[in-house]
Amino acid sequence: METTTLNIAHFNDVYQVSEHKVNGERIDVSKFATLLEGVTSKWSDRGDGRKDGLTVFSGDLFSPSIESSITRGKHMLPIINELNVDIAVAGNHEFDFGYPELQELLAESAFPWLLSNIVDTTTGKTPEPLQEFHVLERSGVRIGLIGLVEQDWIPTIVGWPEHFQYQDMVQVANALSAKLRDPAGEHQCDIIFALTHSRISNDIAFAKNVLALSPAAQASKNIASEHGVDILLGGHDHIYWISKGVTEWEGYDLNTPVEDAKDDQGDVLVVKSGTDFQDLSEITLMLKDTPSGSVRRKVITEIRGKRLSTKGTTPVHAAIKAIYDDEVKYIEESLKEPIGTIEEELDTRMSLIRTQESPVANWVSDCIREAYDEALINKGYTGADATFINAGGMGIVSMLQTMFPYNDSIVVIQVDGKTLWDAAESGLSSWPEWEGRFPAISGFRIEWDSRKEPGNRVLGVWMVEDPDEIGPNGIPFVVDKEPVSRTSDKKYLIVTGEYLANGGDGYTMFKGQPVIITAENGQPANQLVKKYIGGSQFLKRDEQAAESTQVEGGRRVHKARRNVDSTHARKLAPAAYSAVVHNRLGLLDPYQRSRARGHASCCDKGPDCPKCRQYGLVDRKAGARSLLSKESRIAAVSAADEEAQQSLPVIRPFIDGRVKDVSKA
Question: Which band of pLDDT confidence, cut at 50, 70 and 90, is reported for residue 563?
Fold first, then answer.
């Protein structure tokens, strides 16, 4: 029977395009681009200008990173488009800025994005502009491409539309197999690839159920006669992992122990290609025709691959470098824009924030405490009880654009009263040294005595009520809800950093505690704070909001109920976080204004220019869509500047005695 060779380049979960250090190597996206081009340049040319191979991306592009906290993911599009990706599946972090923002991002994508097993119940179809499937032809092979995501991460998405319904991965895959392989149908696919965004263990189980079997396993199972998928190209795990069923893989030990892969018996075909532009998989499939009348027209008889890693010595790709430099220009310009009005100086000296309760540490802790409440409620909890982070990592750069110098994901762990006490003791144990472990907290308070020996300094811990009354000094009254017993086994949900949750900075008591929101599903603190401020600004601008209060320490930045459902309103969930994921910020966003400003002065494409429409630089009066004059376009951006300035939230940090040293009372 006839055999065919099919070439694939695969990567997933990429975030940081700027230079970063990995295993002693300084890499960036321009070096990765050279690596990718080195693979695709070997493929033969097609008549349509594309290469006769497939470049596949398996999700998580737009977030999180320091850059995306500023650009809301927009800087990634020119770069990923230039990489000539053929197809992608949406990952969980595609939704970090909300579905409305994702729609806007995908409108500028040069390639299709899949989300096969999510249905918009208002239409009965895949949410637009995402696609249920896509069909491409490469090397004479008709390839059906489907994109599937695990159910586990969907409840962790803040702002996940209520009318988006998850469907079982296996059922959807088999149904699409029947549709795409139908010999009398429109598509008549020879083979089906599943792009997935799920954990390794879930991918292995899925692969077994849809008969994505290795050549060796096919010897005892005639998959040609059954529907399913032929291979999984996955993401989400942030590790490089190849299932044992492949024929050969250069640069990777197939026997590498991975806890989540214990069910891999060499019977399935799954590829995971690392993270953050560090790795690339070069894959060659050997396909053979099946007997006439078979369900699957072709099956995989060999799969050979190679792990390629970006190095510090990898040459820079000139075109990608030019695009990146252009985006950096807009990022740097937007960094000059204020994002809030500070009523008093934010003192971030190490001698202050690492030795005592400080306004800025309180403010950050308050900001991020309720960031995941919607996700926690979706998972059956009532929201986070408290925040526990270390004050030592904080810094204020360019008007709060970067709150933390590290891209540490914020997670949620479950601890008992004893663990919370132990954490408090650990955080206070190094005083008066300027150690980074000094606690920054929200949702509870600590009384301690610095005169006592380390390990015995904490006098009491109390959970506190959400503040409803403001004192004459503008500071909310602290009202105790309940004491936390040092021997209590009562459980509390704590918002903290991934580093601390893994036992870092002396917080060994956190290591091994149940993780409710994982690092893979979390976002960095600087991004959460930016979302918080952006939502506050949106609500302040919105004339229909019930009350345009200012940012005052974070627990309730706004009392509007329009953007929150009854559960959130009852639980005092932050309207700011809800607003920022359910609405487009548009030209309130400094980065978007920076891009619009540059575009307004040079566009000559006329009324059909997609960027002019995106930035609102068209004349919509009386239904017209004619291009505004250059002067009018520039004036429109200037008006947006003024509107943004007028709606800046006021940042008013305070000390309320939540970390009280009784020796200094």
Answer: very low
